[in-house]
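// run 5 | inverse folding | seed 20
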């Protein structure tokens, strides 16, 4: 039986030959369109509703003073934070799942989100820190947790199953620590901590946009540059070594990048659940392509989070339901559907 490849060779003016998966390219383009459409709808949604045409006109610099303030100063930063956080979580989730070779190898399961939460809670509960201090605490907590998981999982290299098992154990410990910190807080700090732990985009402004943008501008090209090595590593370390891939170096670079992406996203918006878990799986199902699907996962994560934020405001009104609740419900429903589907197919 003949097999037909969907990849097409594209030769650049400089003489380089690139392989492009036609279906994956179409999926990415459709995700970009959906992401931008949801973004325009999100900007127009709120107490002061603005038609889509006026949103586009204002973004082009042709709106009145009132529209310019609402769109460019209040709502555009929130949209950009949603795009950057969603993209970071989608890409970080794809990296963790590919490195661990496990569809459950996401920051939600491995304990990175709980580590960022612990860092934020320490700042809130023990020091009553400012919003900036909470963000830094979450970032440090995520990074420390990532380093701890990597070191505990190390034994002549990092094996995927060992990484997942260590991550689950660390996650359980940190969940208990976070619960203890909440019990120590006074009522004001406890309420503040619970709101942060839910995951929300409320009140996000340009001060959150620029650090996220700089982080993505450095890490996304770095990850994509190591994408070939990651694809080779999915065939096993021995095969990768034979193909000339420096496995431990590539794995370390991508692990650090994934931890930074996840910790930065969590620091900016709180622990938004299930985006990192579901975005890579949805991207893989749409592209029907083997491999890590890094670019589709990135845009899928961005589209998911923007759509979830629009849905939370459209259905429940502005500032009534944090986006983390919506992603948790949708992600949990998808996970249950996936388990039922896999069981019916006899794979579990």
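// decoded
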């Amino acid at each position: 039986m003949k097999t037909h490849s969907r990849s097409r060779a594209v030769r650049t003016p400089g003489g380089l030959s690139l392989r492009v998966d036609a279906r994956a390219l179409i999926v990415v383009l459709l995700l970009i369109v959906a992401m931008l459409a949801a973004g325009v709808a999100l900007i127009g949604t709120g107490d002061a509703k603005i038609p889509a045409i006026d949103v586009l006109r204002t973004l082009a610099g042709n709106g009145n003073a009132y529209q310019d303030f609402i769109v460019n100063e209040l709502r555009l930063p929130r949209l950009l934070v949603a795009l950057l956080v969603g993209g970071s979580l989608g890409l970080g989730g794809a990296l963790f799942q590919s490195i661990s070779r496990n569809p459950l190898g996401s920051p939600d399961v491995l304990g990175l989100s709980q580590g960022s939460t612990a860092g934020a809670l320490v700042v809130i509960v023990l020091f009553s820190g400012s919003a900036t201090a909470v963000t830094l605490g979450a970032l440090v907590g995520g990074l420390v947790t990532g380093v701890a998981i990597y070191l505990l999982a190390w034994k002549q290299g990092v094996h995927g199953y060992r990484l997942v098992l260590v991550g689950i154990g660390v996650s359980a410990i940190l969940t208990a620590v976070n619960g203890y910190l909440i019990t120590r807080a006074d009522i004001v700090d406890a309420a503040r901590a619970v709101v942060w732990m839910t995951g929300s985009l409320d009140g996000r402004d340009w001060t959150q946009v620029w650090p996220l943008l700089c982080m993505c501008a450095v890490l996304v090209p770095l990850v994509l540059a190591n994408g070939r090595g990651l694809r080779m590593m999915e065939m096993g370390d021995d095969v990768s070594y034979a193909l000339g891939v420096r496995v431990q170096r590539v794995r370390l670079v991508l692990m650090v990048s994934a931890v930074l992406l996840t910790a930065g996203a969590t620091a900016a918006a709180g622990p938004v659940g299930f985006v990192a878990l579901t975005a890579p799986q949805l991207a893989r199902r749409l592209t029907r392509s083997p491999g890590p699907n890094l670019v589709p996962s990135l845009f899928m994560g961005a589209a998911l989070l923007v759509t979830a934020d629009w849905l939370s405001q459209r259905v429940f009104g502005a500032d009534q339901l944090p986006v983390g609740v919506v992603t948790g419900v949708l992600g949990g429903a998808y996970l249950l559907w996936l388990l039922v589907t896999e069981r019916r197919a006899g794979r579990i």
